[in-house]
Amino acid sequence: MRTFLLAALLHVVSADFTLSVGFTDDMVLQMEPEMASIYGDAPLSTSQIEVSVNDGKSVVETVTATVFADSSWKATLKPKPMGGSYLITATCKSGCSGLDSNSSVLVLQRVTFGNVYFCSGQSNMALSIYFTFEIPEKTAEVLSGKYSNIRTFMYGSMGGAMPSYTPRYTTQVGLTSWYNISYSASIPEPTDKGHVQVNPFHSFSATCLNFGFALTDLLEREGKPVPPIGLIQSAIGGTRIEQWIDNSTFVSCKNGTPAYNSNLYYGMVTPFVNTTVKGFLWYQGENNCGEVMGNSMTKVGYGCYQVAIVDFWRRMFSAVEGTTNSLAPFGIVTLASFGNEGNPQNMAHMRWSQTGNYGTLPNPVMPNTFLAHAYDMG
Question: Is the pLDDT assigned to residue 376 strictly greater than 80?
Fold first, then answer.
């Protein structure tokens, strides 16, 4: 698996020297003890790529990237301490004929190291904080400087899917930016034909952001160091769990719906599996609520798929030793009562299936997992 993930890092040969989606100014890379990675596309499989890390005073690390047969490249950094504001430069040293000097150097500014979390699911996760009751208070807190440790990256949106039926381990599809929320909350929001054009803070996932707020508050109360927190949102409304796993994992469970399988895993998860993360957050289930809930022990239905997605994502993100932990924390939000899509008779079974049919997390088939219950929210 580890060799395959590196060798298959991209399926499209690029004529340009690029960083993959998710690598922009102001980003958060995973801090120690894990190793963070930077990756993209090179013009040729024989190109030579060098990545340097400058802490603002001097270059603290230089890495020669591995360039693969499909012309993708990847550089893995030594573990870095919490914080900092780094300048990271990727340079195409050779095999870049036809590119001008500006195109052969890629620069990331104001990069910091902290804990990175991958937030995914359907509309439950995609719902923006703009539509929550607490938004006036939270916006005021953020604008006052509270939660300045949190930065966000939004890939796709409620209805803005980027599906694929082949893996996109690196891609230029859906390019967007990282934001420190102290800045993004201050971006003006013009009204166009009666519709407010919400800024990147207000459009970000309420569930994902509230996790970041709660984690920051907890560390502060306990008097512990508060690291930068990087939140990656990749969530699409109206989707099913089968869409967020690969084909081989899909067929390992019975009673799935083939018409829906794998297209969002390949399109919206694979671009990040080479990104080192601290943990995962998952909030989904409404569009599966009318189906077979099943049981993880008999490999049937949602109970099987819930266990499978935890195991599969962990294996893919941790395929390179020393990056994402193979037992990285995985949080699951149970469905609120109104989230049954017209199938209230299945709600208890859905929540049971969200635990792999054990009724609690963690459990023997879902170690180092946790639940956030939403059953009292309507």
Answer: no
Q: Where are the alpha helices (DSSP H) in 31-134?
A: 123-126
Contact 64, 48 (CB under 8 A): yes
- Local structure of residue 269 (DSSP, 8 states): I
**DSSP 8-class letter at 67:** E
The length of the chain in residues reads: 378
**Look-up of token digits 């109970």:** 303
Sign of CA dihedral 21, 23, 28, 31: positive
Phi-psi category of residue 54: left, alpha or beta, with phi > 0 → left and psi -120 to 50 → alpha: beta
Distance between CA atoms of 81 and 86, rounded to whole angstroms? 12
Q: Which residues contact 322 (CB under 8 A, 6 or more apart)?
A: 34, 35, 76
Q: Which two tokens stand for residue 244?
A: 């967020």
Of the two residues 67 and 103, the one the predictor is more confident about is: 67
Strands (E), the chain: 18-19, 28-30, 37-41, 48-54, 59-64, 66-67, 72-76, 83-94, 105-121, 150-154, 178-180, 191-192, 195-196, 229-235, 279-283, 330-333, 369-372
Q: How many CB atoms lie within 10 A of CB 9?
A: 26
pTM, to two decimals: 0.93
Question: Helix (H, G, I), strand (E, B), or coil: what is residue 83?
Answer: strand
pLDDT at 29 over 50: yes
- Distances in Å between the Cα of 55 and the Cα atoms of 33, 64, 83, 93, 225 are 18, 18, 10, 22, 20
